[in-house]
């Protein structure tokens, strides 16, 4: 990405022109910038930032409705906006779960976008969006759990070949495979026996990773690849052999990898371009670190990166490593990230806390005369928006005064409520909207 930008930064050359021609992309870009700016300055994001954020989210809602109706022209703005919102969440405290939801949306949207002609999605923009999505998805996979394995591997098999052939892409493609192997190995170890197929997979991955070469004269590119190569080898080494449940001390191979990685880390200035790519390798080495000095060096570098780049993902990594180290005085495993994040509620919320709900405004429960009175006396027709983009703050109080309360429909985690909406037409000025459980929809009604 921007670390290897050459003569241009794709975040500027690709995103800014799109933002200047599309409101939802502009709103999401301004929200992302405002959130990051405030975090870097150590102050709360201002009201303008949250207005842009709200408008971007609202545009996604209407855009998805249009997309479901067959309007492909909204697909690229939906995709770019989801990507920017996903990045924005990485700069917000306790918002990692929201970033993962945007990431799942990106997976669905990018598959549709690949079918667009080049006139709608130019080659350079297509490559940038694929690469950015694959980078985020690949590194986030370690925290998402086994339920994400299938779609992450499938997306990698489809999308990586679409990028220009590159050694770094070949290396990144192996990251989810190592995570899946580690999970399957742990499950089979717990069941009492590890299959021969997993041993063969581990041997194959070790050969592919250890023989990898950057084949580039670009120093940042080469160094980044070497760091990720070392991290992947440590990840593989954290997979227990035989009946050994975890690393007991450092095997020779792990010690050699730490001996290679830590001097490199100490010699790399925190402000260097490659530092923006170091969070994942630091997390992997940190989870396998049992030596107090190794932990101190890794923690100090994460603190420096947090201060320089103000990325909440870096701070979250520090918090997770601190919890991991407090639980286990010896080396642990990268799989511990998923376990701790689920325990701490960092990857999902329970429906009892109100996440995954739909609020139904009481005006839909009123009689026709009540509704007419509301719009006649409590609204200004000159301010009416045909798209219905207003929040009904005063109208809510008006409805409550007549004994009508909003209803909250609570959906459990991973349940889906389909939003149906029809826009005003030349035959009718009314906007009709309803929500229903997905189980009541026929296959033909689902996009």
Automatic annotation (TrEMBL):
InterPro entries: Fun_TF
Compartments where located: Nucleus
Broad class of the protein's primary localization: nucleus
Pfam families linked: Fungal_trans_2
Gene Ontology CC terms: nucleus
Coiled coil: none
Molecular function (Gene Ontology), one example: DNA-binding transcription factor activity
Entry superkingdom: Eukaryota
Keyword set, alphabetical order: Nucleus
Keyword Transferase listed: no
Region (Disordered): 423-447
Keyword Protein biosynthesis belongs to the record: no
Gene Ontology process terms (BP): positive regulation of transcription by RNA polymerase II
Cited PANTHER family: FINGER DOMAIN PROTEIN, PUTATIVE (AFU_ORTHOLOGUE AFUA_1G01850)-RELATED (PTHR37534:SF43), TRANSCRIPTIONAL ACTIVATOR PROTEIN UGA3 (PTHR37534)
Protein name (database record): Uncharacterized protein
Originating species: Clonostachys solani
């Amino acid at each position: 990405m921007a670390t290897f930008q050459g003569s241009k930064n794709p975040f500027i050359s690709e995103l800014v022109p799109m933002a200047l021609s599309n409101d939802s992309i502009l709103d999401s870009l301004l929200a992302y910038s405002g959130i990051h700016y405030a975090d870097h300055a150590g102050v709360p994001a201002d009201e303008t930032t949250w207005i842009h954020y709200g408008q971007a989210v609202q545009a996604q809602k209407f855009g998805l409705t249009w997309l479901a109706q067959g309007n492909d022209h909204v697909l690229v703005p939906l995709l770019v906006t989801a990507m920017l919102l996903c990045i924005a969440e990485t700069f917000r405290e306790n918002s990692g779960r929201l970033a993962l939801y945007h990431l799942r949306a990106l997976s669905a949207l990018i598959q549709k976008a690949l079918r667009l002609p080049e006139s709608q999605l130019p080659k350079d923009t297509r490559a940038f969006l694929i690469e950015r999505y694959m980078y985020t998805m690949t590194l986030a996979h370690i925290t998402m759990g086994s339920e994400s394995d299938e779609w992450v591997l499938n997306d990698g098999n489809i999308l990586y070949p679409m990028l220009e052939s590159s050694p770094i892409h070949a290396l990144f493609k192996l990251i989810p495979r190592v995570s899946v192997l580690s999970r399957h190995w742990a499950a089979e170890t717990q069941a009492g026996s590890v299959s021969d197929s997993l041993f063969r997979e581990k041997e194959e991955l070790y050969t592919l990773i250890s023989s990898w070469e950057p084949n580039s004269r670009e120093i940042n590119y080469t160094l980044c690849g070497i760091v990720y190569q070392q991290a992947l080898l440590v990840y593989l080494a954290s997979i227990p052999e035989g009946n050994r449940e975890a690393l007991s001390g450092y095997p020779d191979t792990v010690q050699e990898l730490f001996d290679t990685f830590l001097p490199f880390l100490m010699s790399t200035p925190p402000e260097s371009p490659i530092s923006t790519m170091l969070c994942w390798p630091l997390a992997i080495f940190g989870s396998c670190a049992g030596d107090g000095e190794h932990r101190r060096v890794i923690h100090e570098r994460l603190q420096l990166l947090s201060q320089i780049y103000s990325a909440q993902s870096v701070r979250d990594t520090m918090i997770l490593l601190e919890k991991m180290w407090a639980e286990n005085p010896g080396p642990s495993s990268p799989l511990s990230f998923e376990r701790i994040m689920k325990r701490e509620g960092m990857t999902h919320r329970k429906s009892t806390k109100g996440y995954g709900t739909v609020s139904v405004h009481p005006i839909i429960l009123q009689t026709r005369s009540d509704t007419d009175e509301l719009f006649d006396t409590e609204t200004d027709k000159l301010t009416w928006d045909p798209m219905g983009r207003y929040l009904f703050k005063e109208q809510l109080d008006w409805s409550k005064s007549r004994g009508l309360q909003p209803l909250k429909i609570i959906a459990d985690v991973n349940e889906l409520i389909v939003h149906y909406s029809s826009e005003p037409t030349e035959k009718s000025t009314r906007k009709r909207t309803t929500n229903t459980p997905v189980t009541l929809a026929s296959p033909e009604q689902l996009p």
